[in-house]
Design brief:
The complex is a heterodimer of chains A (228) and B (396). With 228 residues, chain A is α/β, with parallel strands linked by helices. Chain A has 7 helices and 10 strands. Chain A has one domain: Rossmann fold (3-Layer(aba) Sandwich), CATH 3.40.50. In chain A, strands 6-7-8-3-9-10 form a 6-stranded mixed β-sheet, with helices on both faces. Chain A has a 4-stranded antiparallel β-sheet with strand order 2-1-4-5, covered by helices on one side. Chain B starts with 8 loop residues before the first helix and ends with a helix. The chains are: A alpha/beta (228), B alpha+beta (396).
């Protein structure tokens, strides 16, 4: 398969109002399998909106998005949900772990909406937790973990379903610099073993650790640099 | 390749329990309203059924075939009287199984001759024969009843209330009372007679003694009649004319068990009222669950957003919240059934009734809580399902 993981052409997003707010204004962006991309830009530049579009959480006003060669245009809400469950893993700034549930069960929930049986979900969840180095925390409840550990559990949850792409929205936004480093190190490791990554950040230090940096301003791509 | 999001049946239950696990106190409090509603309905049904079974049991025990014939007051005729032959006449009606006449004499009863005359205690002196005991199905608490051997002697049998007022409840077999200006020996004390409570407040003496000592004229003022149950209406129809052929409209005929049956009917009416109140409590409980869940949906926007990002469809999110409302309501309903049954058991035991919780109350309570839970969960579930994933994630 040589087709791009993500192919965006002429993407615009307007929010209704008077005058309407144009959050994205003609974005063209192709992300190949195995790439690690940092999306940077000041707040209000459209980073989060773009990530939501990539993640099929919101629909564009115009333009097209294809994920793993499949055009999202005209898909129903249920079909978009299915695309998320099969092809996309999310990591959020606020972690979004369920309190009262173990790290393992939180990771296993990454497969919940694929109809995978519980035992199988837990088995795969254990593997994913090992991969993020938290096998020893499997039985800890989510609220007993440190911020950095929580985010690594969230990464494991995004990873467990072997998605085509992992989308991370300010993954270090709630973490101190030491914990941030650990999370970024983890994401870099994943990139090294071939996982496709898109990370939104407003911290230049973090952006520099990714091979490709896309800079947004006022809903347009103003720079697209590859370090190579 | 067509992708679909799938949520397994057992996982629906798992996700529906998430809210209960993360906020158990809130879950218990919101289910409490339903518990109270169901408990009150089960208790109302249980108590009404238990008390009704008690009434039916007493009706069975007492028999519904006792008829009381009294000299009444026909309009414009003054106070009526029975005739001396009424007892004999009534006993000739074929389906009549037993008749006992009771008359009265004007006399006051005191514990001793030293009690001031004004303290008569409201006890009346009634004249009767030995057959009364069997006709009424009455029983003696102690001693023996009037019979042929004692009929002409100055002896008396006390009704239960009369015995109490005279201080002779604990009758030791050798007491005397001051009756109409002379001493009467007490030979027995009756148990309470449910079908003839006026006799409880009476002192009974024999006909010959009454005639000799108080000029009793032999004209009774009431007849107690037992008739074959299948002919009871026909007997009632001919009784006035038989008891007093000259002025049958002065005769009052009644069935004491009618009063008990009327009481059962009246309690039925109250049952409907209380059941209605229980239903109101249940609906209020359902509104409480809906209310708490709407708040819960708002607080759990982040979780909803996460689930959408994991691939949950709107239907999956709706199922989760309807499921949660159902679990709350059914748990509350089961607790309510248990509580209502416990209340019934304690109250019925205290009243000496047999404990009866009708099956319809148990199944009805569980069904009602399922319905209430489903309805209560519908609106919050719709709100949760309609939330745009981006909005849910942003605001969290």
């Amino acid at each position: 398969m040589t087709e791009p993981v993500l192919e965006i052409a002429g993407l615009t997003k307007e929010y209704p109002g008077s005058p309407p707010v144009r959050a994205l204004d003609g974005i063209d962006l192709t992300i190949e399998r195995g790439e690690a991309v940092a999306i940077i830009g000041p707040s209000g530049s459209g980073k989060s909106t773009l990530l939501h579009m990539m993640g099929t959480l919101d629909r564009p006003t115009s333009g097209s998005i294809a994920i793993a060669g499949r055009n999202l245009d005209g898909l129903s809400d249920d079909e978009l949900s299915a695309v998320r469950s099969r092809h996309i893993g999310f990591v959020f700034q606020q972690f979004h772990l369920l309190p009262g549930y173990t790290a393992l069960d939180n990771v296993a929930d990454g497969l919940l909406y694929r109809g995978t049986p519980l035992e199988e979900r837990r088995r795969l969840g254990r593997t994913a937790l090992e991969r993020v180095g938290l096998a020893d925390r499997a039985r800890h409840h989510a609220e007993k973990l440190s911020g950095g550990e929580r985010q690594r559990v969230a990464v494991a949850r995004a990873l467990v379903g072997r998605p085509d792409i992992i989308l991370a929205d300010e993954p270090t936004g709630n973490l101190d610099s030491k914990m941030s480093d650990a999370v970024i190190e983890l994401l870099s490791d994943l990139h090294r073993v071939g996982i496709t990554l898109v990370v939104i950040t407003h911290e230049p230090d973090i952006a520099h650790r990714f091979a490709r940096t896309v800079e947004l301003r006022d809903g347009r791509v103003v720079h697209d640099r590859s370090a190579a | 390749m067509t992708d679909v999001s799938l949520l397994r049946g057992e996982d629906i239950l798992r996700v529906a329990a998430v809210g209960l696990r993360t906020r158990p106190t809130r879950a218990i409090l919101s289910a409490l309203g339903i518990t109270i509603g169901i408990a009150s309905m089960v208790a109302v049904l249980g108590l009404s059924e238990s008390s009704k079974s008690d009434l039916i049991a007493s009706l069975d025990r007492l028999g519904t075939n006792l008829i009381v014939v009294e000299a009444g007051s026909g309009i414009g005729f003054g106070t009526g009287t029975l005739t001396e032959t009424a007892e004999a006449m009534v006993s000739r009606i074929a389906p009549v199984q037993g008749v006992s006449a009771v008359g009265s004499v004007e006399a006051n009863v005191y514990r001793t001759d030293l009690v001031p005359e004004s303290r008569s205690g409201g006890i009346s002196v009634r004249v009767t024969a030995s057959s009364l005991l069997e006709t009424l199905g009455a029983t003696l608490a102690d001693g023996r009843f009037l019979d042929g051997a004692t009929d002409h002697l100055p002896v008396a049998v006390l009704g239960s209330v009369a015995a109490e007022r005279l201080g002779l409840s604990a009758f030791d077999g050798s007491a005397s009372i001051w009756l109409g200006g002379r001493w009467f020996g007490v030979i027995g004390v009756l148990d309470p007679i449910e079908l003839a409570p006026t006799l409880d407040r009476s002192v009974l003496i024999g006909e010959d003694a009454a005639a000799a000592l108080f000029d009793y004229d032999g004209i009774p003022d009431s007849l107690y009649v037992r008739a074959a149950p299948e002919h009871i209406d026909a007997v009632i129809a001919v009784l006035p004319a038989t008891a007093d052929p000259e002025s049958p409209d002065q005769i009052e005929v009644s069935r004491p068990t009618d009063a008990l049956e009327a009481r059962a009917a009246a309690e039925g009416a109250f049952t409907a009222l209380f059941l209605g109140l229980g239903l109101v409590a249940l609906v209020v409980g359902g509104v409480g669950v809906a209310n708490v869940m709407v708040i819960s949906v708002l607080e759990r926007r982040g979780e909803i957003g996460l689930r959408r990002s994991l691939g949950a469809t709107r239907r999956h999110v709706a199922l989760q919240f309807v499921g949660e409302a159902l679990i709350l309501a059914v748990a509350g309903g089961l607790a309510g059934v248990a509580l209502g049954a416990a209340v019934t058991a304690v109250y019925a035991a205290a009243r000496g009734w047999s404990v009866l919780v009708p099956a319809v109350a148990i199944w009805g309570g569980i069904t009602a809580s399922i319905l209430i839970g489903g309805v209560a969960g519908l609106y919050p579930a719709r709100r949760a399902a309609r939330m745009a994933p981006t909005e849910a994630l942003r605001s969290a």
